[in-house]
Amino acid sequence: MSPRDEVYVVGCGMTPFGRDESVSAMEMAERAVREALADAGVAWHDIGLAAGGSDVSGKPDTLVGRLGLTGVPFVNVQNGCATGASTVLAVADALRAGEAPLGLAVGFDKHERGAFHVSPARYGLGDWYAETGMMLTTQFFALKTQRYLYEHGISERALALVAERAFRNGSHHPLAWRRKPLTEREILDSAEVSPPLTQYMFCSPGQGAAALVLARGDRAFDLCERPVKLASLAFRTRRFGSFEVFSPWLPPGPHRSPSVDAAEAAFRTAGVRPADVQVAQLQDTDSGSELIHLAETGLCGHGEQEELLVGGATDPTGRIPVNTDGGCLAGGEPVGASGLRQFHEVVRQLQGRAPGPQVPGSPRVGFTHVYGAPGISACSVLTV
What we know:
Oligomer: single chain
Radius of gyration: 19 Å
Largest sheet: 9 strands, mixed
């Protein structure tokens, strides 16, 4: 592969996640973009193409009114929890196609308080599905987690350990929303939402923005001292019969999730194994989801998660650091920005300049994973 076919992250920017009623979603996005541009040492007029994503907060391409009317091609993306990764894919593919040497990906959202609520018709479902209560994602994730714990002999304590580590990491990260550490007991004793998941085992819809500047390989090392290579980025949708968000299947036996397919494709393309990963970001809409995704992405075997958590293997100083910034549990989930938050954290970790806890030993291989409705997953491998 020639340098012109390779794509690198050369700049990244991000606002603190949480709730800030003093600014609009567009203002957050502008801040993230300008920070990413400054980080790369370039100006908006240097950007040859852009892609932006938002779930509920407007058309991203209207940002040109704030950033500059340069005529830049700007693609709008809406792809659920995979929106951020979709913007990166759109920009990376355009760079490889030779459309420009530099591109920008941005995602943002400003959600209202309360659980996500959407119409079943938006996902091709009838009203009957909403009447079962399954359009409320807390119900779905709880059912999926309950079944998984039973099938693999994992205790509810593991759910609390995931959240405890998330809040501990978030307490040390300046961009996280939840900055107060919680104990395992506090998490288990918090209000029950959907058994076996309690209040502090769920993330919250939030607000925030994140952006990346990407460059072709023939430009990347002129702009950045330590550019991070996008070694692979793979998307997959659900297969027949798989049990996914807003997908009314319940197979009696094992099934293959889109996360399994996306992770395998990402590792195969990058030429690395799950065991090579030194820092990872996993979709943790809830504690149970992280447990499941640890195994589905190949980072551990099914049923091994509790032992890893008890032994500290997923801590920033452990064998496989996971969600070093606190993930969605500590950061909340502004849908359009959440996937780009993952890239921001892994890029900074690989460059040795993490805003929060830094993984020791100069990590060289990072991994990101997102999963969402109606059964879509995107995984990437990043290397230095």
